[in-house]
Amino acid sequence: MTDASGGSENRATANGSVSSRLEMRHLRYFRAVAEELNFTRAAERLHIAQPPLSQQIRQLEEELGVLLLERDARPLRLTEAGAMLLERAIAISSAFDTAVQDVRRIGRGQSGKLCIGFAGSAMYSVLPDILNTFRDACPAVELSFTELLAAEIAEALAHRSIDIGFSRPGLVPDEHIEQRLLVTEPLIVAMPTRHQLTAFATVPLEKLHRQVAVMYPRFPMPSLTNLVVEELGSRGIELVLAQEARDIHTALGLVAAGAGISFVPASTAQANRAGVRFVPIEPQVLFSPMTAVWRKNNSSAALTNFLQIIAEQSSRLAASP
Questions:
Q1: What keywords would UniProt list here (predicted)?
Q2: What is the pTM of this model?
Q3: Whether CATH 2.40.10.120 fits 113-319
């Protein structure tokens, strides 16, 4: 003897799984009937005619191979299976609505994740204001951060491990990358507090000749060190590159320890690092551009919103005296 459930299983085997033939509308129709316990009111709630609704519920029962409603009762009553399906239908409907809302938020750039690569000195400059403005506008977007050298930012963009980078200096031009100059800062000298050059309120350019310097990796390009060395070299000034530091924090630590002088963006002076004095150069010939860089084909809506904030920030910086 084959019961209704077995017959349904046989049909599912022959024609595909039951779940593959059920649609969200079946659950929506059933939920309306189960909650109203009246076909007429359920049809009005769904804005459809009653006969097609009754037919859809019959089809659902046939597909499942179970009775969901006791139709002889007044009002209608749910069977045990019907009560279980109502409970699950509510949960599925809620999960589906949540998924739709989440997808729409991601599509509007109000949710999702944004991976940011940055030169350490960016945190002393424009980046904190940009991040705070973005967090206020899109608080549900998860931000992740990786401190990188300029050359590493280019590589990270190529491998899609970051969405946007803040590079100092800008990257080598590439047809796949967009760049936007945010700010150009003068470079100043960071020196140990007991260094002989602390006697100067501004360091004469010629006094930098043959100074022992703590610098950043020169290669691969681009690098801030190469920018400094080439500019000073064009003026007949050579540095003794005695120590290499991967990031600005390490460089300042080595300066404080007396390893030599270094060159940092003027905004870094706000760090007030113990054991380090920051002194401008005269004449000012060294400058450091801070550039936002991203892939041209990145379709992230969160990135689009982030770039809008960068554009607004750039406009404000350009308008400021």
A1: DNA-binding, Transcription, Transcription regulation
A2: 0.73
A3: no
